[in-house]
Amino acid sequence: MITKWTISNFKSVTKETSLSFAPLTLFAGPNSSGKSTILQSILLVSQTLSHKVGSRSVVLNGTLTRLGQFDDLRSYEGEFDQITIGWECHPAENEQMAIIENMRVPGPAMVYGRRMDSIKEISCKLAFDANPGSLNRDLYQLQPQLFLFTMSLLARSEDKTDQRYELPVLRSPAGNKKLADLEVEEPDNEILRDSLEYDIVLDEGSLEELREE
Asked: Domain 2-172+200-212 is of which CATH architecture?
């Protein structure tokens, strides 16, 4: 279950604010205290993750909530261009196989890692903006683009040692430079072209497991 929720630069919540969740969590407070803001951020993430369009855009207006455009959501007093939302989960032992079985990925996939590891904690954080340096900024007001997505996993192995794995995906400032460095032509496939706009960073533990495979 989700045990922690964090938002920053989102509507009335300017500074990073974290809330602890329990099996029963109640929001109470006066008007304009941020109750609806927290709920809207949860619905925003839910409809984005369930959306099947692979455009790397955050779904502001979907089936669960309709929030307008990016500038309507970004805190006017915020220091950064990005809105950031994060969450932390602590799955039960009997839920771990269900997590793997319910993973939806576009096309063939291979899961790397020790299958006997016990997942203790999963943390995710995403940051998105209207890509202010882009010529398509007006379009990105309605379809904000991912600036950063980080997934962190804490696992306990059979020898009872804990190991943290991290997978950050961040916007690359020089997608075209990658083609020049690789000395290859620009691909015709749109998905491949779009993937050049992001960098993936693997931690040493994950890299070592890939080498072993």
From this structure: 3-Layer(aba) Sandwich (3.40)
Is this prediction's pTM over 0.70?
Answer: yes
Residue-wise pLDDT tens digits, 22-47: 889 998 888 877 889 999 999 999 99
The DSSP string of 135-197 is: TTHHHHHHSPEEEEEEEEEEEE-TTS-EEEEEEEEEE-S-HHHHHHHHT-PPPS-HHHHHHTT
**For residues 197 and 86, what is the distance between their CA atoms, to the nearest angstrom?**
22
Is there a contact between 73 and 11 (Cβ–Cβ < 8 Å)?
yes
- Backbone region of residue 10 per phi and psi (left: phi > 0; alpha: psi in -120 to 50; beta: other values): beta
Q: What are the tens digits of pLDDT across the range 47-96?
A: 998 886 666 689 999 999 999 999 999 998 888 999 999 999 988 765 55
70, 140 in Cβ contact below 8 A? Answer: yes
